[in-house]
User: Fold Isocitrate lyase/phosphoenolpyruvate mutase family protein from Rhizobium anhuiense.
Amino acid sequence: MNQNEKAKAFGALHRKGDPVVLYNIWDAGTAKAVADAGAKALATGSWSVAAAHGYADGEKLPMSVLVETAKSITSVIDLPLSVDFEGAYSAEPEGAAANVAKLVEVGAVGINFEDQVVAGSGLYPIDRQAARIRAIRAMAEAKGIAFFINARTDLFLAESDLAKHAGLVDEAIERGRAYAAAGGSGFFVPGLIDPALIEKICAASPLPVNVMMRTGAPDVKTLAGLGVGRISYGPGPYRSMMDKLKQEAAAIYSQL
Assistant:
């Protein structure tokens, strides 16, 4: 498949009630392992890619390193690749679009694109984030790519008190609809794990909804039944791998 065919195939995997499952990777080696395990598509996690290079999350990883990482993956794996691009390394719509274009150039077919102000506080106003999404969509259309913009809201991730999540649902739905109108392809609600609230958002969203696995989240089968269209694992795979590495190394060094 050429890049646009991959992009279309990736979009088609997002089906309400039959979600695409993305076990997040961070380099070409993990991409190959997950592909060999049977994945239909690949997705990086920003936290994981940054940590693998010794950086903290939050666009601390140089963008050039992230782009090169994406290139290394697409050069060895033929599956569609989505890149967790945080805030696209720019607050301005034009800058965000120009930066995403660099990922398109190395073969990526989608991004996660969040509405929190990276290295700042709070979330972008809805109209501001919508303008950023429109700019990215216009860039992709100009390149003839059915690029998948997974529009992420950080409403739930930013609120650690799960009891307050119900009060955020109406704004989340409003954001999801605005992001869809601006050219978003999917709606990502990391941090949300309450089944009833997930179901409510899935029913109201014009876009396939992406839920991130974390402690307390429903299992894959349950999420599918709630209407979810995409399930991802975020930094979980990296943390699991690093824990195993530390345990094995500690077992060896404790003998010395």
Observations:
- The mean pLDDT is 98.
